[in-house]
Fold these 4 entries.
Entry 1:
Amino acid sequence: MKKEWPLWEVFIRGQHGLNHRHVGSLHAPDAEMAIKNARDVYTRRKEGVSIWVVPSAQITASDPGAKDALFEPSMDKIYRHPSFYDIPDEVGKM
Amino acid sequence: MASATDLIANDIQFEWLLRRGDTALVLGHRVSEWCGHSPVLEEDIALANVALDLIGQARMWLSLAGEIEGQGRGENELAYLRDAWDFRNFLLAEQPNGDFGQTLMRQFLIDAYQVPMLEALKGSKDERIAAIAAKAGKEVAYHLDRSADLVIRLGDGTAESHRRMQQALDALWSYTGEMFVSDAVDTAMADAGLAPDPASLKAAWQETVDAVLDQATLTAPEDEFAHTGGLTGRHSEHLGHLLAEMQFLQRAYPGATW
């Protein structure tokens, strides 16, 4: 039997943040305890107003070795940035 | 401003405030003894957070106590320059940490009391007491959430964790009765509308404890015997040892600051 508790990735939405951001990881026996532990480990200094936890094992990561093939081709395609257009104020935050 | 000073004698209020402040201080110090020694890192930080909450609550209660006493003593003098017989904490708070299970059980039994106590104090006629209760109440609600959860998990866990939690409950049970004993101080505070009669908190405490112990598959001892004495300064041997460590710096180096 594996004695170590599973690892969880912790995401916190800050006071004024719009989205949850990855802040770190921790060990916990289940999701409920992971939330409690995340509260105690990662929100001691008023860092957040909402917590998500995800089992680390559930995260599928891109292959670091494939970095060039995955990301290099977009480097010279600046026209994909919407910086050539005037965005009306009514659109709001994009 | 409706100040308690207008309603009842200062020495009664002082005595009552020491009960709140000393219980928070002594329990907070006990919990802080786990810092760096907890079974897992996450629990270590969680316990340190609880300890800091309690010490923060002690500061508020003892500052107010010193103010009402009017002898020039502040939170520091009350915390560090009194001997055991001047402390007014519940005996339960000073009981040794034992194993992790005993620490959690002690925490749970006190948290289950603090929640209804602070809830009632939010309606105190003294707005300073009500303000402390409002702040501390949020902290303690989380403490109870956490301690109750862990008591259930460990009570209803492995055979070993169940055995340890039952042992902790058996060891601590006789110290719970003291929390609901009303004396002249409590009656005067209740009559003035400053604080609830401790006996009135028993039902809410019992309900929480019964529900949690039931889920935790633990059985409270039948014995109704209750150790008392904490509120009159007759403490168990453990408090002196705790104070020796907690007060060492101020005793050896009076007035030291950093």
Entry 2:
Amino acid sequence: MEFLSYLISGLSLGSVYAIIALGYTMVYGIAKMLNFAHGDVIMVGGYISYIAVSYMGLPGWVSVIAAMVVCTVLGVLIEGLAYKPLRAATSLAVLITAIGVSYFLQNSALLIWGANFKTYPSVISGTLNLFDNRLSIPYVSMLTVVVCIVIMVGLTLFTSKTKMGKAMRACSEDKGAAQLMGINVNRTISVTFAIGSALAAIAGVLLCSSFPILKPTTGSMPGIKAFTAAVFGGIGSIPGAFLGGLLLGVIESFAKAYISTQLANTVVFAVLIIVLLVRPAGLLGKYVPEKV
Amino acid sequence: MKKGLKINKTATKDYITYLVVIAAFIIITFMNRGGMLNKRMQGLLVPVCCYIVMAISLNLTVGIMGELSLGHAGFMSLGAFTGVVVSQSLITAIPNDVIRLVISLAAGAVVAAVGGFLIGLPVLRLRGDYLAIVTLAFGEIIMDVINCLIVGHDSEGLHVIFNFRGDKTVADLNLAEGGSAIIKGAQGAVGTKTIATFTAGFIIIMITLFVVLNFVRSRSGRAVLAIRDNRIAAESVGVDVMKHKMIAFVISTTLAGMAGALYGLNFNMISADKFNFNTSILVLVFVVLGGLGNILGSIIAATVLYILPEVLRGLQDYRMLIYAVVLIVVMITTNNPKVRGLFLKIIPKRNKTEGGEAQ
């Protein structure tokens, strides 16, 4: 039973990573940039939801929508103001700008909400008890996993069926050719950022529901982990991000339970290193050999 | 006459770099003697030197070798804790601070070199963003592992416990009478006798400059540049990619270890969390803003950007916000073709080489 409960908490944590990683991977696929500010958008989503529930007394689901709206606007703004002018620049320049944006968001949050952490009121509480109370599953965990699967399926359908989704795939393949085919590349990138940020908001709410401590740096570590998950699964691939996120969450949960709490991150990163050595483009990533 | 006295352009640039550092050292030493620096500025002198060395050494990996490393602080950490352990254990054996400092710095450099070699073996086989994420992973692993270490020293020698379950304390070291703990797990190194000096900082900068500038002009350095510019072409003319990349990477980590050792010996307490991902990023920012492959640029960027948040301390909470905005604005102004064109119109006599180096 212990094993099952660790597995479930791992899956729940992994689903949060997967949702964040989906945002990472979409942005990477299309803009070819590591958006280090993504983790901080999660934190903003968490705070917005917290304010909506605690100060304004709105119901949980309204707070999620509020967080999504604010984060979407924020994502598009960040892209337009900071990343768009650097479209032609080297990837390192964009990376440093993303780090600047990350600092900016963290320190703005510090100024607005203070350094003391806030206790997030869970959107859903309660647990489902099975097998004579030997196994208890928090409803939040179940919801997280379900939301993650819905998002994964939704995104896969979106990118394969809709016009915008096809435009995204075209842009990630070859921006120049996509533009020649009449695709508005700038708008496609903005939409990608909007979707990624909305996902980050959802991830923020779910993350804070499971781990109810909210502070300006809440998003950094999950952000790095989700980035790891995206690479683990093969960056740029949507099913890869999903699989990478889930695996990472489960490995972390088991490492905490059976090996060592202190070294849980070490185990996660060690697995990542081994996977990358065996499959240099991640689990589901396409390895493109260089042609001369 | 034809060959001997001709100083080429690259050599001139190297000499200017040395001269700037020496001049800065002399000026700052005199300012310090004359009491022109306040306590806070004095406290910054050694860390600035350490970060300059970190920036130059990371520039070797990122600018000259062309591979993004996000875990450089991990090697600084290896050097720092090795340096502290060595210095604290030798405190009775070698009472002379200067000799002990030299030994500690050398030990820090050696351990970081070994670490760099072991980590380089898997890392350098990867490319691009995958390489970046693995360096990040190693940086975090080093931090976690050091956080689990409990080290003490007594008359019988060193005692080390690897506290990975989190249930051990300093008492488990069973230190003899007169022994003391050097590293206390997550608390880090405490009670270190600080022996770092500004002169030592200046000397390690000069060593770093000498090593890096000569490396770039060496056979191996040219090979690394060729690999950066076109790996396939370099491979096809018989350049051993792995070997030359490894040499550059190990030099880079060795220098980082040396800087770390000096940094660790400058504070009487320091924890492994100091050398986290954010520190790696901080150094990367120095390198990119200073210009990739531009050593003097790294030195200036590290100095200015390390001191900037301290100068802005009067603005309290706003200082990091301003720092972030400065970072974004500088990146956009230097990399956006339109904005740069505007600047070039205003200052038409900017030399062309500068634009070329920033690539």
Entry 3:
Amino acid sequence: MPAAPARDLEIDSAMTLNQVGVGCDVMIRVLNGPGCERLRDLGFCEQMRLRKLSNGRNLLCSVCGTRMAISRELADQVWVAPLG
Amino acid sequence: MDASEETATIALLGNPNAGKTTLFNALTGSNQRIGNYSGVTVEMKSGEFRTPHGKKIRLLDLPGCYSLRANSPDEQVAVDALHGRIEGMSKPDLVVCVVDASHLERHLQLAMQAIETGLPVVIALNMIDVAERAGLRLDPVRLSEELGVPVVPLHASAGKGVVELKQALRFPFPAAPEASWLGGSTASEETRRERIFEICALAARRPDEHQLTTTDRLDRWLLHPVAGWVFLVAVLFGLMWAIFSFAQVPMGWIESLQSLVSSWVENVMPDGDMRSLLVDGVIGGVGGVLIFLPQILLLFFFIGLLESSGYMARAAFLMDGLMARAGLSGKAFLPLFSSYACAIPGVMATRTIDSAKERLVAIFVAPWMSCSARLPVYFLIVPMLLHESEGTWKQAFVLFSVYAAGTLAALVVARLLRGRLGPDTAKSHFMLELPPYRAPQWKYIFRHVLDRGGAFVTKAGTVILGLSILLWALSTYPKSDGDDGEALQHSAMGRIGAVIEPAVEPLGFDGRVGTAILTSFAAREVFNSTLAVLFSVSEDGSDVENRDHLRERIASATWPDGRPLFTPLTLVSLLVFYIYALQCLPTSVVVAREAGSWKWAAGQFVFMSVFAYLASLLVFQVGRLFGF
């Protein structure tokens, strides 16, 4: 299957990090947007588990035990699915 | 040891907060600033050490970076150093990649990119203690097998594992590893990432459930939209109050020492020019600045404490919203806050800002964060303004307002300038790692404080001493036979003052204050020395030159028609001038270097000087209109 439709399918069944409730544990499915490379450098990679810690102008997340703050624009580029 | 022996070069690479600088200090024993905040190392530092076999090693501490893609100027420095693209610096013989064991999944990304460069690599698996406390099951041997490079577990801040690391760096260095995940082609992000997951599943198993840590519990309050701000304002206000009040005792000691030395010189030397030079010029001038050493040390101590404990990153997180209104991001907070201590490290710390235009704006406004060199002037004026002795909460409030005035103007100008520079070609977003709260690393804080104190004393002993002697000579020669007032007017300083007076009179100052301002364009602290020299030339030597005395002297100064020179309005006008004027040559040199343009530095100097003059003029003239 071509890569682009597979990604679209993943995104269809996922939600962005902004849409996740505070305290939820999720797994990153797809990164889609201009900030992807930087997000991956910071540890926001596909299949990585994270917990959303707070909402607001910048979101707080815990990725592999590290607390990261990212802007809402960036959080919109992180597509996640609930764990379990 | 053979002097012609070859020195091998090792580069220390790692993510911010991986403990690179701590390891650098543990290996070289060098003095180096440590900060629990991303991007404290913005310049390359180098040191030397010997392996257990006597091989001399030159160690480069590269700026912290998340990847070798070079997204910001400090990351570019690290990448250039690894590829031998920095002039006068050869390619390193080996890379020690410092990896935080408790965040292995994230830090392996950089380690694997380092392996892909084809340089020999040794992995320093740092913070092994933190990882074990977090319940991670680490297998360094397996990790070494999987990556094909030596892996040394470490607890660098306690000095554990440093000897083993030195053993691993013995000569000849290990061969350059083969990046097995490349499969002969260039690595795609995906293949590297998959390999990281495989390696972590084998060598670093993490407990599944998310555990609530002390940091989580503290952050619930310290990052709270209301409680977090209350705490931040309390911390900043407390810092000002502590600087004002804690320094009183050591300042008293310096005053006593100064008076002892002055009295001794007056007793052993006959009256004459040489005694006047020593007492009024050297002891009065240098002492008038040196007395502020305790306050400056305290300021650096508190900034070190905030950085080292991990709170500084939280402050940046909270400040992001406010900074956004000024067209900046939370990442500009550390450079601007560091500028409260000194604009030079602040300007250099702007390298951590990804956006080039935002960086230029931060460099431009950084000198408006009142630096420690302004403190002597503030401490002289603020108690005079309130007619009370030093150390009260009212003075802390005024000082807080002074800092706020500089900061607010900086943010407004940043906003205007950011609008004029236009949007970035590539949009940058706010991303910040919040390190766990840690017990402050006292050893490094005190080292840093002593370094800064040493630099201040050196400055007092060189630049300020030289200027004090020059000022004394200017205010003493040419001599006249009249009384002290006439002698001063006749001197070179008196004549300069007379020339300047028409320009500074609309601000409420006379020629003497104008001269003091003029001399302080080389370094702000000289303002106090100049006043000390200018207002004590008529001393008969029976009194001691100290700050209270200087304050009394200038408080009783008058215009020729008998009006008091220093009214509350004049003092506020003077304060305003010092908040906004850029009177620091070294800062301009660093700005020119960092902005890559002398025009930027010159424009900044002219703009700030004109702004300071106009702001001071506005305050004085409007104040007079309202009858103050």
Entry 4:
Amino acid sequence: MRIPISALIGLTLTGMFLFVAIFAQWLAPYAVGDSSGAQWEGMSATHWLGTDTIGRDILSRLIFGAQITIFVALASSILSFSLGAFLGFTAAVQGGWIDQGLSRLVDLVMAVPSLIIALVVLTIMSPNLIVLILIMGLLDSTRVFRLSRAVAADIAVMDYVEAARLRGEKGTWVIFREILPNALSPLVAEFGLRFIFAVLFISTLSFLGLGIQPPLTDWGGMLQENKIGITQGKSAALLPAFAILSLAISVNLVADWILTRTSSLKGGRGG
Amino acid sequence: MADDTLLAMKGLVIEATSYPPGEPPKNVTLVHGVDLTLKRGKVLGLIGESGAGKSTIGLSAMSFGRGGVRLTGGTIHLNGREIRLADAKALRSLRGREVTYVSQSAIASFNPAKQIMEQVIETSLSHGLMQKPEAEARARALFRKLGLPNPDTIGSRYPHQVSGGQLQRCMTAMALCPKPDLVIFDEPTTALDVTTQIDVLAAIKEAIRDTQVAALYITHDLAVVAQVADEIMVLRHGRMVELGETGQIITAPREDYTKALVSVRGIEHQEKPPSAPILQVQNVTARYRGTNFDVLKNISVELPPGQTLAVVGESGSGKSTLARAITGLLPPTSGRMVFNGRTLSPNLAGRTKDDLREIQMIYQMADTAMNPRQTVGTIIGRPLEFYFGLKGAERDRRVQDLLDHIEMGKGFADRYPAELSGGQKQRVCIARALAANPKLIICDEVTSALDPLVADGILKLLLNLQAEANVAYLFITHDLATVRAISDKIAVMFKGAVVRYGQKSDVLEPPFDDYTDLLLSSVPEMEVGWLEKVIAHRKMESAGN
């Protein structure tokens, strides 16, 4: 199997980000809250990427930020997929009032912008990690629901699903053994995209001060802390922005590759 | 080259790139050096099973290959010019002017957003052959010649407003409108009902005769091509098997493969005597939810154990709906169904596991009837596990047992459906049904999607299995040759009602009602001149007109 160069770049970068996130404790030269230098220090041997608004090492904070950002985004994506896909499949298979009820509920949630719902909920509740993951996962699951329901509705009318029903199979067999294996490829590609949106979402929340709270840090939070530096020509705010950008692009490249690979399995041209 | 030679192919080689799942793309040769000559005004029939290369050769007559198909060798001369290597501009002026094409599915070929007339005259106008009024007049004349109702106004309709058979004739008019030298007919009647097929076939034949156009007529049905072709070329695996005059191919085929094609449907089946039924359908009436139209009207049929009830009729007659009612997918609005002495619950949810197990179903499209992500072992093994609780080695042994029964042998249990041929797929579906140890199997058009020789094998297998396991079949089909081959009882359906029902010998014995007569007389026979006879004999308009 030949992997196209764009996918190779995506895989390498994504792998690097994951490696850094997992081994942050060992890789980071300084502790996350350690004011080891002066304010707005430039790049040097002691502080490779310089220091931030209160003299903390930016590289170390980027590394710890990667851990938090990726962890929260991954956890909420997993939550949104488990919930959204299960409910979407159920709606497609059961039909009737279950489908109607779930679909209208999802319409209702999607009618209000996610950010506004998140802001309201997070102002009322204390924004700890669990609440963040839950709110992001729940909001995103509506989009996964839409996709899984559409994919499953196509599969649910196939003769082999009817054959399973005529055999007397329960809903769980139909969902997990007949539909899920055939719906997996579009869902895996979608997972990559939703993960990116989760990264952007948590960064946005943190930038607005409602996401990750100190002493923990993430990229959106770093952007917020250092944004004043931009006016003074300091690069400190640009570095986390660049990290968000490159993570989004690399995951996107992988997702694209998975999508073309799986669609070529269905008879399209290999590429 | 003689003057009256229109098309001459020499050593034609056609290749394509295939993309087998999970493997790198590879080149396959579809046509291995075929020679073909067609004189002006003559009709050559190309016949063969799917994959024989007949459509590929047909399209190469306008130097065209479908996606990924390349014409890599040999020469194609049309009107004395070599066209295989012709440039795009030359091809553009050739296609739709000298050569036109009639495809299998008219419904898929017409643009649903445009009126028929606009599409029929489009090529004539774009090639600058005629002015609009002239082209429209010619189209109307062709509509009349092709026997379309209201030839003067039908052109202003949209494709969905006419029937399938009529649309197929509109497409023939489209192909004939620019006065081409050659028309390629690619299975033009295959998708039509048997009674409609006759109309279209007769219309095409007359139009070919009147316009003196030459034609390549592609089909898998030897009896059909025998009605229109002057010569027949038999193809197999991209090679020519036999070429001859139509009469010679039908009556005195030389090659074994042609002989097999001619004698297909040679199955003889002795009708079993009437006995006490295992399935009774009593006054069943049904309609789909949200409609106010009965798709089944007061149906009563009975089926004894170990026998076959054939349900015949055209598309839309309610045959498959009857199957849905019996399986519980469509609960009847009135009437009842008794199976093996117990009344069946009208809907699926109310049926016991034994009810479900004892009534199995086999579908028309084996492709979609099997989960592409399950192995043959899982597909056949699941009913064993589900109904009988078989597990592990015991289950695997029984799966192999069933595979032996359907004459497939070892090494298939680990394969996926994509790795099987069409006939093998249908066999696996039969094994899945048998695994439940059923008393009744509903066969919904199980052989319609298969090539004649493969279909024959499936029918023989079904008959053998019936003799062995004493299972009853409710056999839904539109193909009367199949009905003759396997049934004990027959129910003829028309517009949701059973119009004729009884033992096979009674149903197929005159006097007939008008519909049964129409249906029976419409089955093409391997006989030159049969088409004219049957048209003269008809008493009733086909449903498609």
